[in-house]
Task: inverse folding
């Protein structure tokens, strides 16, 4: 997975209408647990793996973008899920991903 993150792209759900003037998506959609308040960043290897219940608007970002996003917002994110609905779900902390992306 580390190799894929450093050299590939991830599908990121974003808030509809959040396209900035630069053409990037400024407002990434995250899930906040109503019970604990914990925030999860949900990423997908392919838009086909994204559950229908999530926002339909997505962005395609690379590992450098993910590294920067976690550098800026990682302290407010409790966990990151990849392909949470399958076929091979993976969970990691922002710190673990930062270490992998720093290599």
Result:
């Amino acid at each position: 997975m580390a190799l894929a993150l450093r050299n590939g792209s991830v599908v990121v759900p974003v808030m509809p209408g959040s396209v900035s003037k630069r053409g990037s998506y400024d407002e990434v959609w995250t899930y906040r647990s109503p019970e604990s308040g914990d925030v999860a960043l949900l990423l997908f290897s392919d838009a086909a793996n994204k559950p229908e219940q999530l926002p339909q608007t997505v962005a395609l970002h690379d590992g450098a973008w993910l590294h920067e996003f976690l550098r800026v917002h990682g302290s407010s994110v409790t966990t990151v899920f990849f392909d949470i609905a399958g076929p091979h779900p993976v969970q990691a902390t922002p710190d673990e991903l930062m270490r992998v992306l720093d290599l």
In short: The domain at 2-95 is CATH 3.40.1350 (Trna Endonuclease; Chain: A, domain 1). The chain has one domain: 2-95. Strands lie at 9-13, 30-32, 39-43, 58-62, 79-82, 90-92. Helices lie at 2-7, 63-73, 94-102.
